[in-house]
């Protein structure tokens, strides 16, 4: 089976491949030319689709907070959010999409575009030089929503055809 790509790796992309194991499908997520799913890309489709659609809904409805620290670069915003109390920063949590993203801390805010800031945190990360570095992707909110909606349409169709 060929991989279907939605979006662009340089900003945000979802790549859907073939079956990983029974009940799981290979799904790779990309932000700012970084593959988020280096530790685990075997996704249980019903859960993944639900979480993806929830974030797309938040973005579509404008339920993403504005930049909490205007004037700061995205990497500094990440550090400031990460250092803040959980209650404050949880409003910025983003892309918490099952175990395939549990190797990365991700926040989002609006600053004209949707800005997604992230950092890999696992010590066994495939690219140790990326540990502790904050990265960011910026894209129009409607682009993010469109990519997620296209990808989840495919995931939902596959989940219906191949139930567990």
N- to C-terminal distance = 19 Å
The chain-level mean pLDDT equals 91
Estimate percent helicity.
25-40%
Low-confidence stretches: none
- Coarse shape: globular
Q: Order of helices and strands, N to C? A: EEEEEHHHEEEH
- The number of helical segments is 4
Tell me what portion of residues adopts beta-strand conformation: 25-35%
Number of strands: 8
Radius of gyration over all CA atoms, rounded: 15 Å
Broad structural category: alpha+beta
Q: Main β-sheet, in a few words? A: 5 strands, antiparallel
Secondary structure elements and pairings:
Layout: E1 4-8, E2 12-21, E3 24-31, E4 34-35, E5 42-43, H1 45-60, H2 74-83, H3 86-89, E6 104-111, E7 113-120, E8 135-139, H4 141-161
Antiparallel strand pairs: 1-2, 2-3, 3-4, 3-5, 6-7, 7-8
Helix pairs in contact: 1-4
State the gist of this model.
This protein has 164 residues and is of the alpha+beta class. Helices cover 31% and strands 29% of the residues.
Walk me through this protein's architecture.
By secondary structure, the protein is an alpha+beta fold. The chain has helices spanning 45-60, 74-83, 86-89, 141-161; strands spanning 4-8, 12-21, 24-31, 34-35, 42-43, 104-111, 113-120, 135-139. The strands form two sheets. Strands 1, 2, 3, 4 and 5 form a five-stranded antiparallel β-sheet that branches. It has a three-stranded antiparallel β-sheet with strand order 6-7-8. It is globular and about 45 Å long.
Features:
164 residues; 8 strands; 4 helices; 3-stranded antiparallel β-sheet; alpha+beta; 5-stranded antiparallel β-sheet
